[in-house]
Predict the structure of Peptidoglycan bridge formation peptidyltransferase VanK-Sc.
Amino acid sequence: MSIQCRPISAEEHLAFIEARGSASFLQTPAWGKVKPEWRSESVGFFVDGDLTGVGLILYRQLPKVKRYLAYLPEGPVLDWARADVKEHLDALVAHAKGRKAFAVRIGPWLTHRRWTAQSIKDAVADDDVTLLSQQQPDETTLVGTRVRNALLHGGWVTDEKGEGFAAGQPKFNFHLPLRHDDGTQKTDDELLKGMNQLWRRNIKKADKEGVTVRTGTRADLAAFHRIYLETAKRDGFTGRSLSYFELMWDALNAEDPERMKVYLAEHDGDLVAATTMVTVGDHAWYSYGASTTAKREVRGSNAVQWQMIRDANAAGCAVYDMRGIVEGVGADHPEIGLIQFKVGTGGEAVAYLGEWDRAINGPIHWAFNQYLKRR
């Protein structure tokens, strides 16, 4: 059996994802256009001539040296249950080596562990538990364990001590399942009943206060961005430019006109909350959110989330993905409010396998990691 990794067209790449049902939006061909500071390439995996997987590789050049980090955020897109995962990844490394990469970084979009809302609440309430991983997961997937072992035995390394979002894509994420175990879609009433009392009360209050939620156009990104910068200043993070969101809109919606949407929650003519949502197949992501300090009592943030959840459900999505959470669940953790907000939806925390590196040139890879640590 021969496995090859070689360039493919954006059309072949997208067709594979569509046939599969979904993949991370970070692995769509369009995402390469959102990251112009990286050189992007669509690749396919071929087993005896049959296409078995795809990937978006982002190449980042080292300063002053023509060597690259080959990065596949939340990728590649493979059937991770295959017995030949190691051989697929070996083919990826061989391809990247031919592109003068000093290392390959992957982030398998694969759930390894899962905690229900009740387990998360139990962890938050337990003074002896400060990290979610200290709480017994409700499920540990066999395929996740197998892939992790294949990576360890295949020479891949990961930093499992890292917490939060600094190293790359978040390892811990929050999902709201929109389907029953038998695959049938949940009703909006079932989703609402699954939420905690505070969420239901806030959704009801927003409705009573007259908050309206609408989907906007590209022109509405400016209004979203205005309160996004207000949120960034209030919460102490560095916001992205308006041009970034416009580029994201143009690239993703050129690939699929339903790929990215902007939502605006308004009260008496005032914008009180705004969000963006991205959908690929049967998976929808809450990607960015913003709210004003004024009129927080009308609960625009809950209203806009509820509208996105209902829209994702109406579109037949399997998961509404609220993206990253940090692992810390201690009462004094600075991000505890984020996980408490998300767990109120009745969803679940999932841990992916995280990001893994395979060095091609050991000394350059070591120097690169030292550079990252100094930043």
User: Anything to note?
Assistant: The first helix runs from residue 10 to 20. The chain has two domains: 3-107+355-374, 179-317. The first strand starts at residue 3 and ends at 7.
